[in-house]
Fold:
Amino acid sequence: MIVPIILLGFICASAQGQERVVVTRDTIVMESQDSALLESYARRFNPGRSLLLAAVVPGLGQVYNKKYWKLPLVYGGFYLIGRQIGIYNDVYREYKGHLYYNLENGLAGANAINPATEFRTRELRRIVDRAQRERDFFIILMGAMYILQIVDAHVDSHLKEFDLNPNLQVRIEPVFEQNAMLGRRTGLGLVMCF
Structure:
């Protein structure tokens, strides 16, 4: 049993001894029986530059990284969030005017109804407060979207040199298990192959 392990160790050690690695400024060349040339993309995709471009003009960092498919996601997200901000701001301004009308004209009583909207003062206050809260929430989402697209551009330019293994897989498969204590069990399992 020990002899095959020792032989395997000698084979691995001799296989590693046949390679010579030469490292230059941006290029790694491995000289062995099979020679491979790996060039770095660090000069072509600078993470600092993509971060700056994304901060100045949203979406420009994704264009710099040649991820053009992300551009509609960035601008679509900004459009949808901006639209919601506009809608809630319009509701806030309209009903705030009606609320001020009620307060200025002495319609703050329990049964007093605004003639234009047919809402009571407390209902108008709830509408104004909710519209303001929703508008402010979407303003925060707009800031988060802006920061997210900057982080995406920066991380994406860092990952340009990342080599993805083509055998890397994640899938869901049925699982059948025979356990002496629990008996036969079936289910679904998440299988990861590296």
